[in-house]
Amino acid sequence: MDQIANTSTIGGERIDAVDHCLAGIARLSGEVKDASNYLPPYDQRAYSEAIKALSEKLQETRSRVAPKAKFSFKTSKKNGSAISLRDAAALAGPQGLPGYRSLSSTESSAMSTPGESTTTSTTPNAEKENGDDIDKAIAADKDVPFMGEGDDVPAVDGDVRAAAAAASIRKPSFSQSKSVNISAHASTHIIVPSTASHATSSGTLSSLRRCIVDMSIPTATGTPFASLAIKNVRDSLLVCGHVNGPAHITGVQNSVMAVACRQFRMHQCKGVDVYLYCGSRPIIEDCEDIRFAPMPESYITDSLKSIPNQWDQVDDFKWIKSEPSPHWSVIPSEKRIPENIWTEAVPGGPGHKLDDILKATIGQGVMIRQ
Questions:
Q1: What is the residue extent of each domain of the chain?
Q2: How many CA atoms lie within 13 A of 86 on its CB side?
Q3: What pLDDT, on the 0 to 100 scale, is given for residue 212?
């Protein structure tokens, strides 16, 4: 960070150096969030202050080396309680976390710049309300960390989030949690690992935009979620895994989901492709342009095969006529997402970026509808 001032501005070298520092701070912030389940409050505050000091130091450096504009007024404010950069780096380093293992590059936090999206809603005001709810939740960073604990862990600013593309997939452990709650994220690929197999008392996904969330791994070992709730999601791919009870889906737009459950209830959704394995008749209400297909073979376990799949026996509570409901349909077999996309692209990895996966899943559905 001290070398930024000496870095050449030619060819964007100084910008690259700043982005490298931003990505490092974002990585440290993500690691502290993931470790907050077992860190004492005192240590959490210490690491939070260290990360804050690093962010302030970088901002101060950027302001110092930035070209000065003419006829501008600037005030400076020094933080008397700030610790030195060297002490902050020592505190924030992974070696300073007792009992904490540093995450690998594929386990680190990631957030790329959110993309613009255009969708419509079942009612004129529903899209605006849902979009506002998602934007407010993301802006508030309500889920820091994922389980909503660790109030002392600070949220990082937008520049840090945008620079965190150095790490492509986030894998929160949920090692000390009884449930999985993922909320307020944009342009993030999240994979819930096998360490969360004991945290399946319930699952909750809310306020997501342009995200990929894969919860299939912990539930594939014979420990399904007791229940699942999904609310206010747009332009996302959700692999929900197995649910031993009801799955309630509300306010989802322009998305694709795969889920196995005993009961399926969908409300106020539009433009959603559902790859479903359901032990009872699925129910939709106040929905539009919902399409169903059977769950991909790669997610079907031996325990599911003994249960008849009623994925296409949909009841529309807002359609009482004898004619088929116009609010849902079956995805033709030749237009369904290919099996290799589910097995090779969706899990992520080299050559499979978030935008590419969303284009291969959600983008395919959009092109078919057009």
A1: 126-369
A2: 0
A3: 96
Pairing of strands 237-242, 212-214: parallel
Contact 111, 161 (CB under 8 A): yes
**Rounded-to-integer distance, Cα 221 and Cα 63, Å:** 52
Contact (CB, 8 A) for 346 and 357? yes
Question: How distant is the alpha carbon of residue 146 from its chain centre?
Answer: 10
This prediction has a pTM of: 0.58
Q: Is 18 exposed, middle or buried (0-12, 13-18, 19+ CB in 10 A)?
A: buried
| Lookup: tokens for 118 | 């255009």
Task: Please report, as a single letter, which amino acid is at residue 85.
Answer: L
Torsion of CA 107, 110, 116, 120, to 10 degrees: 50
Mean pLDDT estimate for the chain: 75
User: Nearest 5°: CA angle at 290, between 284 and 293?
Assistant: 100
| Whether CATH 3.20.20.70 fits 126-369 | no
Tell me how far apart the 2 most distant CA atoms of the chain are, in Å: 75
